[in-house]
Amino acid sequence: MGDLGVTTTGPELLAVSDRDRILRALAECCAERGFAATEIEDVLARAGVSRDRFDTHFASKEDCASAAFNKLVSDMLATLSTAGAPAAGMAVAANAVLEMIAAEPAFSHLGLIGFRQGGTQRMRNAYESAARVLSLMMERTRLGRGAGGLSYTQTRAAVGGAEALLRRELAAGRGSRLPSLLPDFVYAALVPFVGQGEALRQAREAARWAAEEER
Amino acid sequence: MNTGQREALLEAMMNELVSNGYGEASVEAAMRNVGVSRAEFMSDFRGKDDCLFAGYDLLADRLVARASERCDSIESWPERVRQGLAALLDQLAAEPGMARALTRAFPGIRPDTYERYVSLLGRFAPLMTEGREYAEVEEELPGEVELLSVGAAEAIIFGEVDAGRAEQLPEMLPEILFSVLVPFVGPERAADEMRGASATG
Known about the structure:
Chain A has 215 residues and is mainly alpha-helical.
């Protein structure tokens, strides 16, 4: 490394990597035993960092979980926004998110299950706010031009169907299988807006696109 | 313990869980509540967790049985779904504590308790399969359409229960019905069913 003139031991870089290690360790502990049963000491042991380092970055276990959750949400939004213009279709965006979740099963478990089911009221509120943003994004893009008239509850429910599938797979430790369910997710997101025929057509299109990407 | 005592104990234990959280939920308090001795408890349960799992299964079985009771004999699938869903929402509204235990207090304890919740949701999926025959398209619907439908209802129910608004769930029947039916029949017919549900309340 020294040969390249890159310093990897500066205090700032160390700080970043400590923080990331803690976040990852927390996500892994929570996926294994749940948020409530996870002790900060378990996180420290797994991350290989001292309590001082934890305290430098986080005020509490919940604060740390919130940071992990925010990382997941911002990664997801960034993935969605860079996944291409709406014209590229639902498939590209949905696939990018599924790949991301598959690649980060512990963070996704904490975000989708731990935060919603096992945490504090504040954590559940944060979860519902994130789901709300996603629902409103779907509403805004109108997914189906002819839609209109769907209430917030109906849009939120469409997101809920997809969440149930994500949660079932993550809970069973099958996060890596999620990208293979792309057509189901595309169908779920589209059918209330564009009807069955068009939703199925786009789901098939997504499957074809994914198969080509694979090659 | 006879069946009545056992059920009373399980209910008391679930109330402990909802009121005090997992850590503070007290087996002793539940036993005192229903007049069961330590020895009687120990002859039926290995401990607190065992009792909580049994309590959850009791509530889940009861929820499913009461919903089935109201709709099993109905011939038409959309009507059966509507009546079953109405029965489900009525129960959750009538017993908000039970609703909380079922959706959050118990599933939130640990990954293995959460799995029970996933199983509970999974029990509703086969009830939806007949909906595939009602599709407006010839092709096969996606493989997970049943869970997408159940999950749509769950998202709304969970949100209302968590916000302390379980009592309002029956009023939301039309919108939830739309969301449950739409993967199977498409938005137009789901909207027709929704209007039907609003009209008959």
